[in-house]
Design a protein that fits this description.
heterodimer; A: 433 residues; 6-stranded mixed β-sheet; B: 264 residues; 9-stranded parallel β-sheet; 9 strands
Amino acid sequence: MATVHDAQHDRAHRPGRPVPEGHDPDERGHFGPYGGRFMPEALIAAQDELSAEYEKAQLDPEFVEELARLLRDYAGRPSLLTEAKRFGEHAGGARILLKREDLNHTGSHKINNVLGQALLVKRMGKKRVIAETGAGQHGVATATACALLDLDCVIYMGKVDTERQALNVARMRLLGAEVIPVANGSATLKDAINEALRDWVASVEDTHYLLGTAAGAHPFPVMVRNFHKIIGEEAREQSIEKFGGLPDAVVACVGGGSNAIGIFHGFIDDPGVRLVGCEPAGHGLDSGEHGATLSKGTPGTLHGARSYLLQDEDGQITEAYSISAGLDYPGVGPEHSYLKDAGRAEYCAVTDDEAMQAFKLLSRTEGIIPAIESAHALAGALRLGRELGPDATLLVSLSGRGDKDMDTAAKYFGLVDEHGETVADDADGEAAR
Amino acid sequence: MSLHEVFAACRDEDRAALIGYLPAGYPTVSDSKELLAGMLGGTDEAPGCDIVEVGVPYSDPVIDGPTIQAAGDTALRAGFRIRDLFDVVSSVADAGRHAVVMTYWNPVHQYGPAAFARDLKAAGGLGVITPDLVPDEAEEWMTATDEHGVDRIFLVAPSSTEQRLAMTAKASSGFVYATSVMGVTGARATVGDKAESLVRRTRAHTDLPIGVGLGVRSGEQAAEVAKFADGVIVGSAFINRAEQEGVSGVRALAAELGRGVRSR
């Protein structure tokens, strides 16, 4: 380990702990020039109520304990930290530690945030929850929390994504949620968010919008980050306990950026630890078909906050593309924009092909099929490991499992024909590619 | 003439002002100029709109319902650019009539708030309605609009607290836009009963005129709203009429609504 910190300096970590001073946005939710509330007046009262309820809740031992109990006894936390030795051989021999959010109940990090917000919904006395989802991870997690806590649940999902993620649509419906396919615009995550916001404007009195990423209007970015901070806090302790020190870099995929901001925050006060976010470069940064907001975007306002965006010179939001439905978003959480400008985090872009090669490599070397989102972080780690060499230790957020992506992967690798039938293996164990 | 004077003239006639919305560039830039002229012209029997709200077509119009979103998409597909907005506003001002702009914040942010206010003023536009910009975030916009003498119209909603009504009214100029229902734009069978109490609550904080929008589609509804508001704002109904009947359709609707606002 290149960076070893004295354990005495480690903060006590427990879920729901108030955020240390210095990393919170200002009163109006600004991280430097980013964040804020750019939203219809009709929703401001609900955001104020949510802010106040969240402030109270995080100081209320009953709420903190209830959330801790659910995370431990229902979601399965703490999640494991697994060393990926064979995978690391392909990353220049670097030591690769995987933070196993894929092992959480519902198969991704998303459960941390939905349990927190669903408990807040109960406190606010609201009965109905709406949410948006891209790949379906957040939708499944939300439908799960709503089933557990007896809340009505409506999930908005781009029509294109309902087709890419049919299994997750079935899952949400089985859990009792109503899934509404959105055909507007690009019919992906951005449009699902627009439709959920429209619902919310009309239903805000009895409905909570359970936003799935650390984006949107204040207090969503800071609140969602704090619900996911446990990822980084656990990983930091596990790194020290199991591996004797801190990693050289923490690598995570960034769409909206919730898993990344959660794991980054465990290490944000450790200047020796590089924070690396991996965005989807889709068909390539110069192809015009990507979702690399921080690499290629410019500051603007979308979905309630100022942040980097993919937009044209008139401020029209342009369509994002990624093979991963979960990363297919033209915006990003405002705190990532702030961390980029401040130089505390760095952001790279990973193409579909690089991500899919990392997806296959982790499956073959470790017996772990990752979400395609997480495969972007794995590809970033392969690159970084080859750059830093065998002495490096890299912590990778394995934000979700790949079951939901099998259809995409099977088509990508030619493991099924156009009718969905299996095809014969070639010598490399795969068919067409 | 300023917005203040337009509303004062209507008040002198003991009536509400009629404000009609249409996206610039719908269905094309030149057609939108003709439609707006028709909305302002009314018919021989009855005058039309006092003010037009020229919308900026936008990719992500979160507070607009399907009618306005579809119209905006049509305009964007036809090649609408922000510079066309000023051309459309000029066409209204050059005819001696009154235009305000309704736009989401990102196009203004991207254009540059000061440049946007400057160019709108030069085109003869009187004010700007910003449905997703609340005064809390509008410091730069306040400076730009003050400097260039453009009115800034913020929205109040049935869910606004007294404190926010006071703050929003204080930050506004020209008029205050009261959203009659909790919901997105779109013609409705009834205007929400929350509209009247919202106007009453807002009026306690300001002498500015108060316009009511969201959901008005008929002369009868316009008359109902005109009883308690200073301005009646109609959007989706004009787009529906434009789509079905073109310029003659919007003229006829403007005349019907115009009679409505005069029948308090």
